[in-house]
Structure prediction request, 129 residues.
Amino acid sequence: MRASFTDLRKEILKIIEESAQPIMAKDVLNQLEPKPNLSTIYRALDFLCRKGFVKSVSFSTDANYYFGAKKAHSHFLYCKGCSEIQVFDQCFAEKIQKNIEHEFDYKITDHFFYFSGICDGCRHRMVDL
Ligand SMILES: [Zn+2]
Ligand SMILES: [Zn+2]
Prediction:
């Protein structure tokens, strides 16, 4: 598997893992120098997803956001106004997870979820309108 890890894939994985929030393919592109074309990036992202290094999530738009799969859990807040994503650490899933493992005779290895809503900045902008 190592052999199939091109420098570009390595670099993309590093960008995603170092990003504080999930990012889109075009955000990855912005950080690469020299710039490959976007379809090359999509192919690399596809590869990283298939191999389990990266996960993707799409919110209310078509765009996929990518984040590192190393963490056992990730939680996001997605603003429907400005599409900004924030990460939060509080996890309430542990207890639910235990119940589900028991009920379905399952070993859960990871989870991610998001809440969507309107961020502080967008709420203020709405008031200003
Ligand atoms: Zn917002
Ligand atoms: Zn969690």
Summary: The CA atoms of residues 73 and 101 lie 16 Å apart. Residues 38-50 form the longest helix (13 residues). The chain has a mean pLDDT of 91. The pocket of zinc ion (ligand 1) is lined by residues 79, 81-82, 84, 119, 121-122 (CB under 6 Å).
